[in-house]
């Protein structure tokens, strides 16, 4: 017996001593090390090509009314595995997605409490994902999270592209600064919003894009945010350590979990090539596979809308200016005086349907169609809309028939005004109304503070709601584009009817004072890491006072930049946001918007630098067409791109829509040039983009006979 | 011009000086005086038969972020009117109800803000009701209530029957004490509860019953609590002034209103005869008339239930003891080991159906029929029940067929566990399930803290929900009996499908340690002022250890007292709560429960003293039968009643179920006597009731031939 005991003790000792675990990425460039510090605190660190990228960082959670899950752990066991498969999304930047990682599962047991905690690490070539798992167990059944204490310890005072940490809004311009400068720049970074609440002068949101002095790109985000509260990051700017800062509920608790449960994945992307950050599908790959059996009804949408004229103030959502307030079902609109500025009226909508039909758009969105817009905002109003009662001048039947006769779909609008219970009470009838009148998609909005009061847009309560609305929409075969909701974290893999979110500072803010001209060179590195954005581009008239003399906003972009956005700001849902009359001033530029595809076989990021430029080429799904887009930042720049993505032996016409040489986002935004070229896989282009400018290229296969008179690139 | 100006000024002065307004009750016994104090503070006072009952008391509201509605008012105008009509309730204590009052409408304008406030007073013979009205106006559209400041200034240190003011529970024994003693007795009055929160050591709930040293009875309550938060009362025990104390929401606000809006009615009943308090229909009369077009499906219900055996701990709601927790839709109950104590199983339910059919009961309630009871409580669990998925041993189809074949209805049970959003998400499918399986009524429950967290059972948010559930139930022709919801305030007039509430300390607490023996002599003066109570009486086995050896609770009541409750504790929904085997031990006593009616042509309160005794006679609707009930308090007492309520020239058999002479709620609760008498309108009865005892009498018309051998009263 003695011999066996000795051997067992030795093995036990060996296991305890070799608690340190390491994990490599498939290509070996990334290495993650896990271990337990003294007091049994789990920590990890990450290195890239042999150099530390994330210093030793703690893991764990602080619980309410229970012993914390922070320390006193030992490793009960570990398991390594690898995964490599390819799957097909319903829609996306590419036809197929490879999911390849090495995984380490670490099983921890907490000595005194006997509780188990699993930390699962997945190391992809482009980055690390890890999450906490709380197995079903006797000693941990229901628990309340006081705070998650996941650290991301930076190796230096990196440059970051950040927006202020906030429980309710992401609609901020990005600030580019050193981490050490966040504190001093914080207050001026907080632009006003309908609903917002910051928590720390060094709090920031994810995804957070950073660049080190050594030219490494680091991106922090989360994937699969389900039944949990959103993770902001709080920076300890003495030690340059970020720590997770979850969103509280009305009573200050940060999460209610029931085992078995998992946290979302915390993700760290690392590369010395910025394009890898944009190319990565890690966020999607960390989500659960598609749960919808039938996805035949889910289709990308190119649309226009009765919307921009209200955003600019030219028209109104409201029907009348006579009412101090509205009580749905009691207020008799037929007795009020129309204000003459209500855009969502039958005749005007038909004009949009005509325009959409003429120019090959799939659909028309109409906002302001339903009773309630006179007092919808800023009153903490509970029963704010019923989502089914049109204004007197919006004939839903007539519009339905007209749209059908023209082969155009209608997009529904559900502004919830943050009144979540009211929306849920009406959700079934609202979706049934959509089915009845053939609205295949809805743009939902959550403008204003959340009701129930005390809850936040990014708390577990609201996050549960957003998914509830998407799942119920799927039951009705409805696609959802949720604005002001939580920024996406890859759930579109599981629920591909979630075709869009805004959840960042979109084009509308160009009419609310303007956004930074390089905003669109940052968004794909930050907001779009978790999913597409309904950025609603395509503004041709930059001087908003031309639409509404009382609004002196200026759209800080050139027309060429606006065209490029259809390629660079990936979304299966793309709006031509401006008014038909503004498109008709530049029908040749408008042609690009009409031609550009929405769904892709392949996407190739040709060049990218956060804050400066992004150039991407995408192949239209099931076609030989390609589209290229370049968005440029604050400095004029010449882009040099190779067309080696084109199929060899094929001949193409490339139509290049670019800034005119004297264009400028501020002083001369509407100056553009259109040039047609003959191109093939050997072609190259050197193209100048102005500040806030860019270029867009449509590339279509053509016979040599069609291109022989064109200049060759 | 001068003359006219002088005259106008005089009139204006006259109007200003005669701001004091008085209002009389129809019989002239009550007089209300309204005026403005200095600084334009509205005040009122009330006198009865020339003596002050309510001293000068302030009115008004404190608003958040706006000038308060407390002072700086002047009277813009007043209007007096009278009302006298009779209406017919769908069910009730009487077939017809007279609504007779004099009304004073006072229109106030606040000088600086230009805002209008109306205070409407209605003076009935039995009391005063008044409410605030906020007319639609430009300067007051949306506002938030910080606190309502309605005072009720007492004329002395009255005796009160009170429960601690609380935002979440009314399930307390009443304390009888002087107002000055509330503070010292407060802490011991707070019995433990699943969800409770007090706010002041002199806070009490309504309705508050009081008796002055001069023998006047005063009752404070509210009527028509809709889209507002519940009013508790806080006592300034130096000055003996009660002030309204509303229930806050998660962020501390006490109400969100949009004009035009009204507050609930604040009611003050006054009489020198305690019976007038019980007879009064003022609370109902202050509510809006019936809104349901078709009420043919609304019927009183006499029922039994698979319930008391779980309350006593003999059986369990839960199916298995194996699970630490349940995830609905994931947990596979067929793989768990039944605990053998799950009462809601098909065979056992059929036994109840048999018993109900045999003994003429309308329906059987079953609790614990649905998945989720293993961890439903105390975990702040959101997705706690789905209300449609039965346990493996509850065959809903089979039970449906069996019940139908026996002519017995099933009563549904929806325990929400306070998870309001979860209930609302499932409400339609839950009611559809009821329709499908012919469940005409549901007992709903709200045990535990409300989710969304931070909200309270009596806040505006939850109150909005309770009414939403009742209105939606009416759409499905479902009757609702809501437990742990807000105590009723007469809404059954407007929604007669609200057939019951518990919302006070009911019979179940007899199995949780017992209630005071005189509890049932107080409840009709307090809890029942706003509506009937599903008190679930009829316990025949007082020694709970006989059902569950681990539960040594004792039911502090005699059998005769239990029988009387069917008459004294008015409810259109009456349960025979005990187990069939306990009824079969005393089939002769059980006969009264089988005979007693549920709906009434007339109710006559023969004698009443809060805390001591109540004796009431009621005439069965559409029948010549009468039923009499007496419940007695802590001291033995002999009741002397006249039968002059009977129709003259008719002959009746009166079956008197009374305490045996040696009965006692504690030591000999099951000792009763049954005596039959011949009675007519000239008869009298002198009947002794023991402590915690009482008597019940069924009186049925009979031929002289049937009664000739009976003793005559």
From TrEMBL, chains A, B:
Gene3D superfamilies: 2.70.98.10, Aldolase class I. Residues 307-504 form the Glycosyl-hydrolase 97 catalytic domain. This is Glycoside hydrolase family 97 protein. Monomer. Residues 599-699 form the Glycosyl-hydrolase 97 C-terminal oligomerisation domain. It comes from the Bacteria. GO terms for molecular function: carbohydrate binding; hydrolase activity. The keyword Hydrolase applies. Residues 1-20 form the signal peptide. Its cofactor is Ca(2+). Residues 23-289 form the Glycosyl-hydrolase 97 N-terminal domain. Keywords: Calcium, Hydrolase, Signal. Pfam families: GH97_C (PF14509), GH97_N (PF14508), Glyco_hydro_97 (PF10566).
